Amino acid sequence: MKEDRWTRTISFALIGVASFSALLPIVLAVMNALKTTVEISTNPLAPPTQLHWENFTSAWRNAALGPSLLHSAEVAGLTILMVCFTATPCAYVLARQKGKGWRVLTFYFMASITVPVQLYLYPLYFIFAKLGLVNSIPAVALIYTAMFSPFAIFLLRTYALAIPVALEEAARVDGARPWQVFLYVILPMMRPGLLTVAIIVGLNAWNEFVVAVTFLQNDSNVTAIVRFYNLTGQYSTDWGEMLAAAIMIVLPVVLVFVLLQRRFIDGMTAGAVKS
Length: 275
Hints:
Structural class: mainly alpha
């Protein structure tokens, strides 16, 4: 009994420390977003003496966050659709095929995860400029699809491996064609994995900066994260305004994650157990 009590006490203490460590930066960001630059420079840990809500209005106006947030949502949505559309059948094929050739292909996808985007940024920009695809949101979503597809393939492959082959054989006996087996048998059982992939890919596409600032150079289609970077002045920076902009950019992502966190956790744990 004493050991169980000590175990629970230590567990609660560790959870408290982890929660405090995770929430402290968020609390400091919100607190400093309501202060002036002078107050932040003087003591960033002190609470605001007066709430400066004008930081949010000026950040929304100066960074044009309304259109840029819509552009970020467009890029993230297109990326999610293209990644799920391409990675799902690829993961299913890799899960069902055996042999050295398929192992080499699997290793290739694994190795592509480790390649940094800076390595192929210049030649990719040169090609896109020749094709007239610079300042195109669908083109940026296509780059993100290539970047995030290997991870999505490996995650979805674990769900495909867990689906019994007998279900596919029974569907074929009933007269289902291969595409019908995939759409009506395989795809519904991979739905938790698809939701998990959509959340992770959407978060990465929403927060990605290097590709966005390189390929979206027109003010009419830049994303929110690029607008946030543009708030930095050459000689001085309004830190209250920047923190207010950061909160408004992060808030939609936090809300989506909070609403879907149960499904996200269920999808991750199901994939880990089934693999």
